Fold these 2 entries.
Entry 1:
Amino acid sequence: MSEQEVHDELEALFRRVLRTPDLVLTRDMVTGAHPRWDSFANVEILLGCEERWGFEFDTSEIDSIRSFGDLQDAIVTRIG
């Protein structure tokens, strides 16, 4: 799966979780950049990623994710 495909699937997940069908994400977007993107949404997003890509983030990975781009990179690294 390419980096663009991961981006597109992640964006679809964010759109669903944040209930914003026209949301466009950039690598530097962080929690709070959207009014519905809070800590509860973060949990739902991470769980959705784990379900979609079939792995569990470890604590150090979660601690290092600060932006949409960080999350995308973590997934690309995990799925190789």
Note: Residues 3-79 form a domain with the Non-ribosomal Peptide Synthetase Peptidyl Carrier Protein; Chain A fold (CATH 1.10.1200.10).
Entry 2:
Amino acid sequence: MNILDLLTVSDVLAKLHISRTTLYELRKAGDFPRHYCLSPRRIAWPRSTIEDWITQREQEQPQPIF
């Protein structure tokens, strides 16, 4: 894994258009992928893990009936 393939908290928030609080709630509930600790105060996720999680969430959403 390359450091360029990691997304920081700020990157994830921007990509998902969610607040920091929402991210923490998802993590606390166990509904978000596990992260890597880069340092005691910095975490990150592999880009592919976040993209897979997004795809999975999109597939779980019910499709509208017209």
Note: The mean pLDDT is 92.
